[in-house]
Design a protein that fits this description.
This protein is α/β, with parallel strands linked by helices. The protein has a single domain, classed as Ribonuclease Z/Hydroxyacylglutathione hydrolase-like (Metallo-beta-lactamase, Chain A, 4-Layer Sandwich), CATH 3.60.15. The chain contains nine helices and 16 strands. It has helices spanning 15-19, 24-30, 67-73, 81-87, 105-108, 133-140, 152-160, 226-242, 275-283, and strands spanning 2-14, 38-50, 53-57, 97-99, 112-114, 120-122, 128-132, 164-167, 171-174, 177-182, 189-196, 199-203, 246-248, 257-258, 260-263, 266-269. The strands form four sheets. The protein has a six-stranded mixed beta sheet. A six-stranded mixed beta sheet has the order 9-10-11-12-13-14, with helices on both faces. Strands 5-6 form a two-stranded antiparallel sheet. The radius of gyration is 18 Å and the shape is globular. The two termini are 15 Å apart. The protein binds zinc ion. Zinc ion is lined by residues 102, 104, 185-186, 206. Residues 102, 104, 185-186, 206 line the site of zinc ion (ZN).
Length: 284
């Protein structure tokens, strides 16, 4: 198995929205914000190559949104989706599977592009696009609180173009890569667990966007069922601590990965480290 991670781009959101009921006097100490209270987030994808499959996990905002939309997300930096893949040796047609943890615009927008005739096309023409059945149902009948995050142009073409594969239950997608389902952030979020060199790596998506969100009550305002998130975090963190899992953060601007440690205050992230460091350590 070969794994690669790259940052598609960064963007900014309101810091308070990312930390829910935690006051700024607390989150401000661990995650810096600018003069408008905005904090930087990354959009990091993971590529897993194994058993003749090339699996891409999440794919950023994409290029379909207009200037007005983009002016609200303050995108900056990053390698870009296709250049990032190319730098790791993959063409769009090499990708066999796209896992979408969920259908919020910052996780799935790169999977569909608008061609020169204005038609929607698959960015990865040979890939199956995996989404949980629960998330598909949830996103195609959106509640008004999440409506702005589910953009039809990111979602409906997957089905119309015949690429959609619905995941009904938890389990292995390919040997060494299994999918878990969580419901607090949004219904049916898929969290990939990867077995690599004897370790379990977790693609945390919006279950744990940053190392700073490991403490139980540090939950995004965006979550549709925060008490469910609380329960899911507690259960999963205990499992992850016992199993010495390594957490990969899609959104953490400052850290690619961390482990977990038990402190007097409960389970916390260790100091963050880069994906390169992780590979170096695991491949030694
Ligand atoms: Zn989300």
């Amino acid at each position: 198995m070969k794994i690669s991670q790259f940052n598609i781009s960064n963007f900014k959101v309101d810091g308070g929205a990312m930390f829910g009921v935690v006051p700024k006097t607390m989150w401000g100490k661990v995650y810096p914000s600018d003069e408008n209270n905005l904090i930087p987030l990354s959009l990091k994808s993971l590529v897993v190559e194994a058993n003749g499959r090339v699996v891409l996990i999440d794919n950023g905002i994409g290029s379909k949104q207009d200037a007005k939309f983009m002016s609200h997300v303050y995108a900056f930096g990053g390698e870009g989706l296709l250049p990032g893949l190319a730098a790791r040796g993959y063409r769009p047609e090499d990708v066999t599977d796209v896992i979408l943890t969920h259908l919020h615009f910052d996780h799935c927008g790169g999977g569909i592009f608008r061609d020169s005739h204005g038609k929607f096309q698959l960015t990865f023409p040979n890939a199956l696009y995996h989404v949980s059945a629960a998330q598909w149902e949830w996103a195609t009948h959106p509640n008004s609180r999440e409506d702005d995050s589910f953009l039809p142009e990111n979602i409906l073409p997957m089905k119309e173009l015949g690429a959609l594969h619905l995941i009904e239950s938890e389990g292995e997608l390919i040997p060494g890569l299994s999918l878990r389902i969580f419901n607090g952030h949004t219904r049916g979020q898929l969290i990939p667990l990867i077995s690599y060199r004897g370790k379990t790596l977790v693609f945390c998506a919006d279950l744990f966007p940053f190392t700073a969100q490991i403490p139980l009550p540090w939950i995004m305002s965006y979550d549709v069922e925060p008490l469910k998130t609380l329960q899911e975090k507690e259960q999963f963190l205990n499992e992850a601590l016992r199993g010495n899992y390594i957490l990969l953060y899609e959104h953490d601007y400052f850290a690619d990965c961390s482990r977990l440690q038990l402190t007097a205050k409960g389970i916390r992230a260790t100091e963050g480290f880069s994906f390169q460091q992780l590979l170096k350590e695991l491949n030694e």
